[in-house]
Amino acid sequence: MNIAIFTNNYLPNHYGVTNSIESFRKQFEKMGHTVYIFAPAYKNYTDNNPNVFRYPALDIRYRIKFPIPIPYSKKVERKIKELKIDIIHSQHPNLLGTVAYRLAKERKIPLIFTWHTLYDMYVSYVPFPFAKLAKFWIIGSAVKYANKADQVIVPTNSVKKIIKEWGVKNKNIIDIPTGVEEKLFDNSDAEKIRKKLKISSDKKIILSIS
User: Cis peptide leading into 12, omega within 30 of 0?
Assistant: First the structure.
C-alpha cells in the first residue's frame, strides 16, 4: 500500500506529531508499505529520506520555531500526480491538511485524520490580540475536518470524549497511542538511578513520562 502523510510539523523538529509520524512510518515500512511524507521546508535542513517532499514555508519564531507551510507548490503537485497513492493520512485540519482533503476527494481515496492534541491548549503561541479568535477557529475547523474524514485517530480515550463534546459526530473514531521505541532504553542504568534517588533495590520504580 502507498500511504501519503501530510503534516504541518516534521523533522528536524522533534515535537509529538513528528515522533508519532516516525513511529508509524517505521512500522508501516516494516510491514512492506511505502510511506510518502509531505511537510513544510526547514531552513538549512536536508532530508535523507527520498520519500519526503517539502512545501515552501514561512519561518515563524514566535515563542517556538515553527515554519508555516504554504499549501501550494507546482513541484510537489507534479510529484503527487506521479505517485499511486492508496490512502491519505492527515495530521492537521488546516494548511497542508486542506491539501490532503482535496487530494482524497479528487482521487476518491480514504482520508484518515489524526487529532493529536487539544488545540485550545496551544493558543498561547498565538500573539495575544488573536488568541481568543484562534481558539474558536482552530477547534471549529478541526471539528469540521474530523466530521469529513473517513477515519479519525486520537491518542487517548479522554481526547475522544472531549472532541465528541466539541461536536465531532464521526462514528469512526479509534484511540491509538503513539508507540515507544524500546531500544532507546536498552542501555539504561537502573542501579545508577537508584543510587542517585536513594531507592533501595527491593523497591519497584514506576516511571511516567508525559
Answer: yes
Total number of domains in the chain:
1
CA angle 148, 154, 157 (to 5 degrees): 125
- Local structure of 131: helix, strand or coil: helix
- Distance from C-alpha of 142 to C-alpha of 147, rounded to nearest angstrom: 9
Per-residue pLDDT tens for 120-146?
A: 776 666 555 666 677 788 899 999 999
121: DSSP letter: G
Q: Is residue 186 part of a domain?
A: no
Nearest to 163 by CA among 179, 141, 178: 141
- What does the block give as the cell for 87? 490512502
Q: Determine the structural domain holding residue 24 and report its residue range.
A: 2-179
